[in-house]
């Protein structure tokens, strides 16, 4: 697995989950929840806390065309709430995330690419090598929604932050798995999970508990929910345990121009078009549901197991 991300509270828990349960060949970073310097520093810090030596490559500092926006109102000014980070003892492996993604796609058999930030790096990779989709065993994104958005009434953050990049991705990948808000808003981690993590007392589980404290407080305040969606960890779990999720394949396009709908993923859920022939072929397997308790337990167990004593 290779994860392209913008840590980000939920990205951090996704990375811990992947470091525990997947063969993670690298992390690439992108501007998104916060600026690229913070997302990259956070990725290095997360790997260090986990005690995992994984390559980290810095990627795009700004969207392709759209103005830069962030989600510091959710993730805090530096991206990981007010959670204290260790001083980072290593540097990035390169500032060419796109080159690294393409190298890995060429050299690693069965590589699954998981993109959980704005899709700028992936779009740039497609531009540099349009054969990228054929070189991957799978491509899963956290992004989009068939139903309501979370940044605007119609747009989800990762798509909205760089809609032109997202449009390239949906246009040029023949098939991807879309882990959007339809499913991630059902998989909530709350005080019970936080307490389990804290009780396990490993560096990663204590760190994840502190992140959950932040997520539960902030999202609780915004939405009035008891738990918080840890979107990106659901995307990682959807790769590791597809049996815990269900969805349908549909044609999906990204709206670029609507004044109310820019950044919307338009999921064509018609059963046959007007005359049964005018639908585009499906390009996305859109997840709608999950065995929520199992997914939540798997995420928490993965984080605990990462550094659990034998
Ligand atoms: C997505 O946006 C970001 O804020 C999160 O990290 C997640 O990837 C949810 O809309
Ligand atoms: Ca993210």
Could you walk me through the main structural features you see in this protein, from its secondary elements to its overall organization?
The protein is of the alpha/beta class. It has one domain: Ribonucleoside hydrolase-like (Inosine-uridine Nucleoside N-ribohydrolase, Chain A), CATH 3.90.245. Helices cover 42% and strands 15% of the residues. It contains 13 helices and twelve strands. It has helices at 9-21, 36-50, 72-75, 97-107, 120-128, 132-135, 157-161, 163-172, 181-184, 191-200, 203-223, 231-240, 292-306, and strands at residues 2-5, 26-29, 56-58, 112-115, 138-142, 176-179, 188-189, 228-229, 245-250, 252-254, 265-267, 284-290. It has an eight-stranded mixed sheet with strand order 3-2-1-4-5-6-12-9, sandwiched between helices. A two-stranded antiparallel ribbon has the order 7-8. A two-stranded antiparallel sheet has the order 10-11. Helix 1 runs parallel beside helix 2 (36-50), helix 4 packs across helix 5 and helix 10 (191-200) packs parallel to helix 13 (292-306). It is globular, with a radius of gyration of 18 Å. The model has no long low-confidence stretch (mean pLDDT 95). Beta-D-ribofuranose is lined by residues 8, 10-11, 33, 71, 74, 116, 142, 150, 156-158, 231-232.
The SS-based structural class is alpha/beta
The CATH C-level name is: Alpha Beta
- Assembly context of the chains: single chain
Cα-based radius of gyration, to the nearest Å: 18 Å
Largest sheet: 8 strands, mixed
Please give the alpha-carbon distance between the first and last residues.
25 Å
Say which CATH homologous superfamily is assigned: Ribonucleoside hydrolase-like
